[in-house]
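Quick one: sequence plus zinc ion SMILES, need structure tokens.
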Amino acid sequence: MQNKTYYLKLFNTMSRQKESIIPHDGKTIKMYTCGPTIYDYAHIGNFRTYVFEDLLRRTLKYFSFDLLQVMNITDIDDKTIKGALNKKMSLLEYTEPFRQAFLQDLSTLNIQKAEYYPRATQHIDYMIDIIMKLIDKKIAYKGVDGSIYFSIEKFPEYGKLSHLDLKNLKMGASERISADEYDKENASDFVLWKAYDETRDGNIFWNSPFGKGRPGWHIECSAMSIKLLGETLDIHCGGVDNMFPHHENEIAQSESFTGKPFVFHWAHCEHLIVDGKKMSKSLGNFYTLRDLLSMDFTGAEVRYMLLHTHYRTQLNFTFDGLKAAKASIQRIKDFIQRLKSINTESSFNLIADVLQKTRMNFKEALSDDLNISVALASVFDLIREINHLIDDKKISKIEAQNVIDLFTEIDEILGCVFIDENQTIPQNVTEAFEKRKEARKNKNFDLADELRDFILDMGYVIEDMPDGARLKKK
Ligand SMILES: [Zn+2]
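Reply:
Sure thing.
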């Protein structure tokens, strides 16, 4: 079987077609991913987008691209200010625990670290520089409320990303709004610098040449992406809900500032819904990652659930779906365990083609706009085929190791299987497990049974396998 070269193709929201990914500078992919606003814990809908971005990151590496990724942390907006003032804390004191929690959640979901996680408040000077230049170019102006606005009339291409017909949507100056978020039905000049308001902002403000205040949300992403990655990005990702107006505004202000294209490739992840409905606190179907962990699901299981549906399709979260994700991971783990127990020395030469076919199908599926369902199907086809060979005792120890090696390679993408479980198993359980091994070796079976009962009480079972015992969650 011949090795084929696959080009990684990704759907571009701007051109509405799949396009090959090529680094603009011939070397490194520059990727920007809109990050969280840290006024609360992120929910599983947010994490769907971050897991998609991680799949893209891992796939780019799998296709041998060098990569620089930035994910911004929004630590200044109306919600963070309100939270800090309510708790009588500084902005940093209020937001820092949520930033730490976010980073911890990323690691629970085995999301690879981006190269940079800049905080908006660290780059306010550069935001001011951009706004100054837009004022000089007469693209930005001061509104009656003292805030600085971007005039979308000065950017005729406004709307080119979201393909909305904005002709009938543009609002008159009198209806102009200064909120960070406004609904899809309204396109209007948007705020670059929000003038200080004592009742709303308390003691939280920055000085600027155009008065006290704070930057708008959209300008943050333009400033941090240009500063850290350069004027033109290869890939910009985010959730579909950020496409308009946030990304449209990022394009308008960045291209007006640099005079160059802002992004070559836009990738948007679809919504997550719960039991067929929009997730909302009022419907009682709102989940953070932490909620699911407290129900005894693991990060790997939540990750698999968020990962296994194609990113441009709505993902309907259900607990049955999460249980199915759990079962899929267990199936892979049981299979690996079965492979590890093979001791046959003689080779049968029946697996090389099967492995090669799986590797090609897996890679080809990913190359087609990250078609993860097809990629996963190839993995389970492999399990089925190899299980038949194991049933017929037609696979050697070395061949079994070759299969495990392929799974290690595949898990570079999935990130759900070969996780150091000792990190997630409580220390007193692993200690009891080690002591039990020792007790059994010394034929102290009473103590061994006592330790087994303790481990059971802690929610773990011991499986005695041909290659030794292992711990497993009940
Ligand atoms: Zn953004």
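Residues 462 and 471 are 5 Å apart (CA to CA). Residues 34, 221, 246 surround zinc ion (CB under 6 Å).
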